[in-house]
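I am going through a labmate's work and have reached the protein record below. What it holds is a sequence and that sequence's fold in token form. Please read both lines and tell me whether the tokens look consistent with the sequence. Do not assume that whoever made the record got everything right. Thanks in advance; the entry in question is below.
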Amino acid sequence: RSTTGCNTSDENAGAPQNRPLGLVCSCQPMVYYDMQCPYILQRVETLKEHCEEKAIPASFVQVATLEQAKALPCVFNNWAVFYGGKFQTVNQLDGGMLDKIMAREDA
């Protein structure tokens, strides 16, 4: 997994450095989420732990406003995952599903 040319950040930065919220990095998983669903926080924490354990660089960006949601390059309800520069799913993921998406895109 190459991270060449990627700027990473944590959720407190709001979005990857020097990158508008609606743009996605092609070299790492990017998860956009909001807090409308009571299960989102648990899912985000579980997925972050999985990424840390497997040394997967990933960005998790909380979408807090309607303007931010409209800026995303996909339909957004409360969860959106991008990888390989492409939209992957609006379904909440576990670590196994993220691994499958990455394997499929990296093949």
